[in-house]
Structures are given as C-alpha cells and as structure tokens.
Amino acid sequence: MTVDPALVEMMDAVFAEYRDAHPPAKTVERDTELWRRLDELGLVRLTGAEESGGSGAGWFEAAELLAAAARNAVRTPLAEHDLLACWLLEANGMGGDDAVRTVCLLGEDGTAEGVPWAAASDRVVVVWRDGDGHRVADIDAAALSITAGSNAIGEPRDSVEADVAALDSVPVTSDLVAELWHKAALVRAIQVCAALDRIVLSSVEHAASRIQFGRPLSRFQAVQHLIADSAAEAALARAATEGALTTAVTNGWSTGNLAFRVAAARSCVGHATSVVVRNAHQVHGAISTTLEHRLHEFTRAALAWRSEFGSVRYWDERVTDATLAAGADVWSLIVD
Predict the structure, then answer these.
(1) What single DSSP character describes residue 72?
(2) Bridge partner list, 145
(3) CB neighbour list of residue 143: distance below 8 Å, 6 or more residues apart
(4) 233-289: pLDDT as tens digits
(5) 99 Cβ contact partners less than 8 Å away, ≥ 6 residues apart
(6) Residue limits of the Acyl-CoA dehydrogenase/oxidase C-terminal domain (predicted)?
(7) Closest Cα partner for 74 from 43, 53, 45, 46?
C-alpha cells in the first residue's frame, strides 16, 4: 500500500485543522462547509472516474483518506458516498451528479436499519433482492420513509422503508452486490484500524507522561504488558485488513479467496477492538471516562464501527464456514 506521502500529509492536515476548530458533538451532522472544502480538494469523489468528475485515484488512496478522518475523529460520509453509493452507480452504468449519496441494502420486507447518513444525504442508492437477482435505484432521500437514528458516537444510522414496487429501478448483478458488501466491510475495517492505532498511541503517550509513585506509568511491568498486548492486536488487525485490501485491489475484487480474506480481516478487527479498548481505559484510568479526554472519541468509534456491515460473530462464522468448505485445501484461502 504505497501512497504519495505528500497526499497523506495533506489529508491529515485538513482533518486535523477541522477537528481543532470543531469539538465533538453528541449528535453528528454532515458539515456542508467541510464537504465543500473536501470537494474543492478532489477528495469527495476521490476514486471516481476522471471523465465523470472524479479524481481517478484508487482504493489505497481512499484507505488513507478514511484513516486520516478516523484518526482525527472527523465524521463525514466520504466512504458511503464515494466508495459505495457512487461506485455502484458508476459500475452499473448509471449516471450520477453532485448530490451527496449513501447506500442502503433493504431486507425482504423493504426496510433497513442502521443505514449510514440516510437522512443527511440528498439521495440514497437502494439495493434489494428481486427473485434470484437484485435491483438498484437511485432515489431522492425525500421520497423514502426515513427515521433518524444514531450509533454510539452520534453518527447518523437511520431506519429506511421503501415500497420497492414503486421505485424506478434497474437490475444489478449478484457479483456487484457481493462486491458492494465486501467493500462496505473493508471500509469499516480500515476505519477501526485507524482508531485502534490512535488509541495505542494515546496509551503510550499517557504512560510515558503520567507519574505514579514517583515514576512514569511506563516503568510498571503490568502497564507495559497492557500496551504491548494492545499494540500487537492493533498490528494484527491492520495486517489482516491491508492483506485483504491488497488481495482485492490486485485481483479486481474477484479472486476466489477474497470472501475469506475480508472475513478474516473483520474477525481480527473485531476481536482486537475488545483488547485494545479495554487495555487503553485501564492504562488511562479514571480520566479516560471523562468527555474532556479524547480517548472516548476513538474507543467508542471502534466499538461502533466493528459491528456495522456485519457483526463480529457474523464474520467469525464466515471464517469458519470458508475454512470448513476448503477442507484439506485451507492453504488456498491464505496464499494469493
């Protein structure tokens, strides 16, 4: 995953400057000024085709963008808009415009829970099963029944209801829908990994600066073990996620072991979050439970994101299913 360092530095600077000027709020809303700034920098449609107004970048650049936002605790629907909703329209030959979009996967009853940024978007790209296939529609958000909700960090996670028979839709291949699911899963894995890295860094800095019984916390072996365990778990989660993303990008999101790689990444990310969050709050002590300390901006985010687009148990089961199905040929799931 090699990305121009200058680009990464610019992304970090934009989000760091924004976060410094905008303390976290209990309820997160899409900031139109931030969105306009990101659009001016070519980051809103970072991976969009240049002929349709995008920046023509790839997933590695997009991963750095998502990580930069996450490690600065800036909440905005870049992934949902660019990597999921607009990508699906573009991949299915459907034209788009400058409207802000999110994606919604409806259940058989025409409803969906926890849809990211639905009420805050101009349009919603709705996907649902139709017999043996799927259909997709690009719908004005006002035409849908949307009930506002939020996740643990106040990001919009809304309930959506639609009469699919009344929607102007077109068929979409099952392969594209599967790719959408894998991309959505990796989006959250990337964001969680960035949050975990930030949590580990905060733990290291706090342990080095906090004096207890006449010496820094970092001199206590128990604290060293907590931080070492956290660092190891965060590194494992990051390696699994980068491995899955590299496999996906290198093979055009179509290789036979991608489903296993994504499931393994999400499983590692989910279990790492439990260890890193628990250890970090132990290292930081009582101060970490206050709103004044920034740790909660990352621990609550990691806990919220790891359960979106599939719970930890769901991805654990996918790993088990793939392994059992492979039988004696498990090695084929691991190697490229």
Answers:
(1) T
(2) 161
(3) none
(4) 999 999 999 999 999 999 999 888 999 999 999 999 999 999 999 999 999 988 888
(5) 121, 122, 123
(6) 186-307
(7) 43
